[in-house]
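Re: export button greyed out
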Amino acid sequence: MRVPRRVRALDPQQLGAYFVLMEVSSILRHAVEQHLRADGDLSYVQFQILAGLSGSATGSQRMTALADSVVYSRSGLTYQADLLEARGLISRSPAPDDERSIIVNITEAGRALVSRVLPGHVEVVSRLLLEPLSRKDLEVLTRLLAPVRDHMRTTPPRSAAPRRRNKAAPDG
Amino acid sequence: MRVPRRVRALDPQQLGAYFVLMEVSSILRHAVEQHLRADGDLSYVQFQILAGLSGSATGSQRMTALADSVVYSRSGLTYQADLLEARGLISRSPAPDDERSIIVNITEAGRALVSRVLPGHVEVVSRLLLEPLSRKDLEVLTRLLAPVRDHMRTTPPRSAAPRRRNKAAPDG
DNA sequence: TATTGTTATACTCTATAACTATA
DNA sequence: TATAGTTATAGAGTATAACAATA
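Workaround output, generated via the alternate export path:
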């Protein structure tokens, strides 16, 4: 099993790109998480859920759609949704067209919290990530990473449990 | 308190760069973590510790140096070091010049595990991150992110507990 | 039979504070 | 008094598997 052919070590350039990406994103995420916790008592995932809902036209989404976009397991989303609902930041109601599904709605309190937290969030991102980058840099960075994102979205996890609703091909 | 001046919302270009960076790094980290767990029963932090040690000339480092480079709290590093030591992957011995300090050494078993896990690690990184990027892209990406990393390293967390060994300025 | 979502559960990781020992 | 590291403890987050209800 596990026959990884052609796995030469990474050369310094490849290693460098990988490392700097991981370090930058780690520090940024850590800083963002600290701010969200301090300022709104929110985890990053919770903020993603609220922000995603408040950004959507209807302010609502199916649980599965949320799980796919935000979190890696359904039970994890249920856990987070329970917390958000207990705080009155979202509400859940059955979907009219498919009674198995649950529609998650952001409440006024949820929108208010997002609005309250957003400035600080923006401030952290601006200070840490955006400050050293010119407009041109941002454009180039996005142009480089967007294909990687698309590639990642379509590349199957291979030995991992499928993130979407596929049947599980046993392994490999 | 908390007077964030000039926090306009991010424009689409800034948002796009931020989002794509976070999504790419999240997926990559998740995939890497799954591989390390499946292939070597290692967390990402544990791998970082081992890889850092095996990369260093002496195969050893002080606990504090490791904590600074890898983890955000000292107790967190102690926890991970306990696990690694229990598996015989590292050893700890008092530093000769400063008896408060502990020198962490990677063992032969530790090096062996890194060697065993590395090909799969490289494979995951190559497949997910590197594949859609040309050599030129890698160079540009690193050139863009390296200053961000340096900026982040020197930017104080502001409202967060200092990551290094500074005195804690109460807040703000 | 497959899918949506929840529940029960177990486990990993992280952080804070108190503590010991050395500088 | 400050620093290095450990310990005790508590809490958050995640995943797996079993489950209920609907398609």
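Strands of chain B lie at 60-62, 90-94, 102-106. The button fix ships in the next patch.
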